[in-house]
Amino acid sequence: MIFLAIVVAQGSEGFDSMLKRFNKKVQHAGILSEARRRAHHVKPPTRNKRKAAAKRRQAIKAARRT
After folding, report:
1. Which of 1, 9, 20, 55 gives 20 to 30 Å between its CA and that of 48?
2. Domain boundaries, the chain
C-alpha cells in the first residue's frame, strides 16, 4: 500500500505553515501509524489475540452506547 502526503507551496507561504499542513496530511493518511505497525514482525497468534481484544473493546463500547 502506498501513502502519499504531498504539500505544494501556495504563493508566499512560509515553511512553518507548509510543515503544519504536511503533518496534518500525514496524520490524516495514517502514514505514521502504519509505519509503526509494520516496524516489527508480529506472530500470527499474537495478531489474532490483538484483533479479538479490539473486537471485545468495540462490542463493550457499542453496548454502552445503547
Report:
1. 1
2. 15-65
DSSP string of 1-65, one letter each residue: ----------TT--HHHHHHHHHHHHHHHTHHHHHHHHSS---HHHHHHHHHHHHHHHHHHHHHH
Instruction: List Cα–Cα distances, 4 to 7, 33, 35, 43, in angstroms.
Output: 10, 14, 13, 28
Q: State the residue for C-alpha cell 503544519.
A: 20
pTM > 0.70: no
Q: Which three cell numbers stand for residue 42?
A: 508480529
- 16 within 8 A of 49, measured Cβ to Cβ: no
- Residue whose C-alpha cell reads 516489527 in the numeric block: 40
